[in-house]
Amino acid sequence: MILGKHVSIAGGIAESPARAAAIDCNTMQIFVGNPRGWKNKDLPAAEIKEFKQKRNKYNINPVVVHAAYLINLASPKQELWEKSISALKSEYKRCDRLGAEYLVFHPGSHTGSGFKAGINRISQALNDILAEVESDTMILLENTAGAGTTIGAKFSQLGQIIDKLDQPEKIGVCLDSCHAFAAEYNLTKKSEFEHLLDDFKTEIGLDKLKVIHLNDSKHDSGSKKDEHAHPGQGKLGKKAIARIINNPQLQDKVFILETPSFDDCNKDDDIILLHKLRD
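Structure tokens predicted for Probable endonuclease 4:
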């Protein structure tokens, strides 16, 4: 099972592989800068070298990076749109230097311009970024919980973005279980989980699914509220989580937890539970 957690980069990015390995992870997700800011410090060559050495030492593969939250490629405001393109481009370059396999980002919000306009802005921005930056890192669109004017709660919207790309092979999808549950799929029911998989195959294609954010939800299905809970401690529950990680079609996917860390830095109850739930 390819299982990891979002871990801290406190003290430097090179410290993160050891943190992931300490809690029995063989993959991980990190930020490569300030997730709530626009500016980031340069990554020294020595730190990048140390990061690569330690991820190899602890067998952390793949490495998933989550982009900053301020990025909004769907914005109709030109200044914010251009700033967002620059920020994602910068993170994309940082991922390439680190050798990270995936860069996950939230598609954004159209803020009143409409879904069609927002989708066009996102695809145009991605085309610009992919045309300028040569990288082996794959950019992943993440589905959203559907609050407000966010784009990506429906798989059809993600599919439309990909269809408009000049280089669609460089883009994949990250599926967040909490977001899907909050948007429309009541994953406590086997039939709804199968419905989700069918919709994903139809609108995007399962080959595009690279990473699964395996989060429980603090709120009910259809609430449009994005607030994660530890697996088995939220509205999805253990059975729904077990159904996801044991589905034959998802066996080779990368599972990442985005839940709070526990006090014991050498033990993570979420990771322990998921290993138990895996058949």
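The chain is about 40% helix and 15% strand.
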